[in-house]
Amino acid sequence: MAIIKAGKVVIVLAGRHAGKKAVVVKTFDDGNSDKRFSHCLIAGLAQNPRKVTRSMSKAKVEKRSKVMKPFIKYINVRHVFPTRYVVDLDVKKVVDEADLIDPERKVDCKKELKKLFEDRYLNQKEVTSEKKAAGSAYFFQKLRF
Which stretches of the chain drop beneath a pLDDT of 50? Predict the structure, then answer.
């Protein structure tokens, strides 16, 4: 029974992005030829959007959401902490495993991911299910600890 599934919001526990939130794109339960341990492909936010208040104009809110900086990486399942939240972002369409091998294509992939995250952040009200709306709101908040 796997807890870490695609769309699940996780917190990275180890490495450069420790303490950051990410979304699971794909899991490899039995590993593969080069990584012989269970791992997953995650896409997350290295830099969260800045704080927004109700009195701010739409232009200012948009400008403050532009600081988002995404990351994509393979990580050992033991180095992520699954949360109870799920996000219905279509990350699988943006992040292709073949693109991660070539550095230039990885940069393009991150740009696409940034667009996807910004679009979701600015249109959080349009999420259909309440559970996924909560997950989306949680994903874009900075982790306080």
Answer: 1
Structural domains counted in the chain: 1
Name the strands in the sheet holding 69-76, side by side, starting at the edge strand that comes first in the sequence.
69-76, 39-47, 21-28, 8-12, 80-86
pLDDT at 124: 79
Euclidean distance between CA atoms 43 and 127, whole angstroms: 20
- Could you tell me if residue 141 is inside a domain? no
CATH number of the domain that 77 lies in? 2.30.30.770
pLDDT computed for residue 21 by the predictor:
95
- The residue assigned the tokens 């919001």 is 9
Residue 3 lies in a domain: no
Tally DSSP H helices, then E strands, for the chain: 4, 5
- The single-letter code of the amino acid at 92 is K
